[in-house]
Amino acid sequence: MDRIPVRHISATQKEPDTTALFNIWALDELLAGTDMVQELHRHDFFYILALKNGSGHHDIDFTHYQICDNTIFFMRPGQVHQLVLKAGSTGYLMQFSAGFYFLNDKAADHVLRKAGSINHYRPGDKGFQKLFNSLAYILQEYTDRHLYYQETIRANMDIFFIGLIRLQPANAVSSASMHTQAQLEKLLTLLDTHVFTHKQVAYYADMLNLSAYQLNIITTTTLGKTCSQVINEHIVLEAKRYLLATANQVNQIAGLLGYQDASYFIRFFKKHTGHSPEAFRHNFS
User: Fold this and answer.
1) d(Cα 213, Cα 218) in Å, to the nearest integer?
2) Residues 135 and 185 in one domain
3) Does residue 40 form part of some domain?
């Protein structure tokens, strides 16, 4: 049975804490005059691609983006993507583990999740240059490694992420309280880990010491969806990933997603997408 390939971050230079990993490269040096071609895979780290000049295409969780100048892509761990980046593209590629950035800082965790809620940013020339300058400074700090360089990198990451959040549409910036946002983020983290073995709202409510009613208030306030809808969307997205990124049979994918009855999974998938799993694979691959 195939699994979606997972790429892991590795440090180019030895870090004091190997669980807190970070890398950044200038793209012209990384490409070295050749195209970057990456087949469908996922990461277990955050991935930021900032392109001052670029061409090619980038598919993230089945959304197709044509690469162009002054573009930023922000990918969260677990997302599936494929990339063709043409030689001559310039900018930065930054990769980091969650542990490197927020180090148990709840406010930083919130900023990271908010900035990463959108995969594709198109700032204007002026807005892009401000963000680009932050990455240039981060690369310099990472290269020089002077005293407190990691703290300086994190401070500039703060500036970069807040800059991205300011680019989001007004209706994308929730007015929910910090507590409500924190509870939502805990839910989403739990879903990433447990959704294929536990699919009931009550399970997650218990894990968060909430009632099902309170949990639904949190998801409707922040996302405009019930908790059941959020759970189902997680399952459907992962099913799509396996259908397009592997050659597994539908009954195998059903098993991976926690369904012993493949026919039930097929009905579930068709209800939420309008396609049977096989038709989805045929139409979108």
Assistant:
1) 9
2) no
3) yes
Q: What is the pTM of this model?
A: 0.85
What is the identity of the amino acid at 13?
Q
One digit per residue, the tens of pLDDT, for the chain of length 285 reads: 678 888 888 755 445 554 569 999 999 999 999 999 998 899 999 999 999 999 999 999 989 999 999 999 999 999 999 999 999 999 999 999 988 997 657 678 788 988 998 999 999 899 999 999 999 999 999 999 999 999 999 999 999 999 999 998 875 545 556 778 788 888 988 998 899 999 999 999 999 999 999 999 999 988 899 999 999 999 999 999 999 889 999 999 999 999 999 999 999 999 999 999 999 998 876
Q: Are residues 114 and 39 in the same domain?
A: yes
Are both 83 and 188 inside the same structural domain? no
Q: Which residues of 98-130 are buried (b: 16+ CB within 10 A; e: fewer)?
A: bebbbeeeeebbbbbbbbbbbbebebeeebbee
Which CATH number covers residue 245?
1.10.10.60
> 199 and 160, same structural domain?
no
Q: Are residues 185 and 102 in the same domain?
A: no
**DSSP-derived 3-state class of residue 56:** strand
What would the two tokens of residue 279 be? 């038709």
Residue 194: inside a domain: yes
CB atoms near residue 48 (< 10 Å)? 24
- Please state, as a whole number, how many other Cβ atoms lie within 10 Å of the Cβ of residue 262: 16
Q: The dihedral of CA 123, 135, 175, 212: what is its sign?
A: positive
Q: How far apart are CA 269 and CA 271, in angstroms?
A: 5
Residue 39 structural domain: 6-172
CATH number at residue 167: 2.60.120.280
- Cβ-Cβ contacts under 8 Å for 70 (sequence gap 6 or more): 51, 52, 122, 123, 124, 125, 128
Residue in the structure block whose two tokens are 């890398």:
23
Task: Specify if 1 maps to a domain.
Answer: no
